[in-house]
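Section 3.1: Structural characterization of target chains.
Under the original work plan, the team committed to producing a structural model for every single-chain target entering the pipeline before any wet-lab resources were allocated. The record below documents one such target. The sequence was received from the expression subgroup and is listed exactly as submitted; it comprises 401 residues.
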Amino acid sequence: MTDDRQRFSRSTDAVHAGVPRERPHHTLGPGIAQTATYTFRDTADLSAYMEGRDPDPDREEYGRYGNPTVRELERRVAALDGTDDAAAFSSGMAAISTVALALLGPGDHVVLFRDCYRRTRQLVTVVLERLGIEHTLVGPAAVRELPAAMRSSTRLVIAESPTNPYLYCTDLEELVRVVRGAGRVRTLVDATFATPINLRPASYDVDFVVHSATKYLAGHNDVMGGIVCGPTHLISLVRELRGVLGGVLDPHAAFLIARGLKTLGVRVERQNGTAARVASWLEAHPAVARVYYPGLASHPSHDTATRQMLGHGGVVSFELRGGRAHAAATVDGCRLAQIAPSLGGVETLIEQPATMSYFELSDAELDQIGISASLVRLSVGIEDADDVIADLAQALSAAGG
């Protein structure tokens, strides 16, 4: 972590934190170290490296263990998130899976907040279960349920803030207080929806902060990656296992994510403002049954979000009164927003989770996991807010709303 991490605003940190003042060849931007392996001058040079006597702390042996371009990205995100270190991965799921496998073994227990990305739920309830790792699901952001869910074998608590897709915000101060009282338990918060601009979970002593860098950090829907931030001793464990599992980030992808970071502050500020306007507009629309946005006083997490976030994010979820068919017609009627999964890019994206992420489930099965068939998730881009609202207005009108 760089010494100047607290000197500037978060938007300025997104441009400068963790960036070296001087680079090889005096370039302003980072080079792309497009290499699979590294060379050694002679056997003595190799021996010095293997014995930890190499004067260059960033020197690597093989591409699966590290890369200069990737390492600079890791330092930048760690500095922006206010942590000692970070490890980059080929995707957000590679990041969170590696953390879980680094910490857990047969007989251990995980607590997962129920409102979360479906693949995270699948990791915990299916993949880890096969390995003899048990789990308990608790309600969305329901920290009050944590004490009853904890066991002597609990080793990890996984939360999102805000959550996907209902945007509940976990009280991180209370989360850490409960978990610390339980002994040898680590906390992991997926802060993808928040970004380090709106929220820094490490400031609440959360152990691991995870981002799908595919989303806001990169910001252009053109690259995939994941980042885990945390203290040096824990990130070292994760980085070591990454070298075994192989979920490494490509150096060109690292370059693109690092480039996207420079505009993170201005993009998120714009998206915060647009999403707030869209949410208020939707809440007043007669065809909309309910809006989920933590910036609204009507959202259950409004007080928590207002207390611990600088902005409320760029995602708005809402339910329509006409059910599944009305939601589908509204999504189809959009001309500016494009139908696509993912979020956090410069383009506004829209989806109906019942059709996109949970297409194989019936309405009754959706109810069992807490997903409404009439739910629509909107990720605003950087377009003019009036244009986004006008697009939704004509789509709702065309859909009969």
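The first helix runs from residue 10 to 16.
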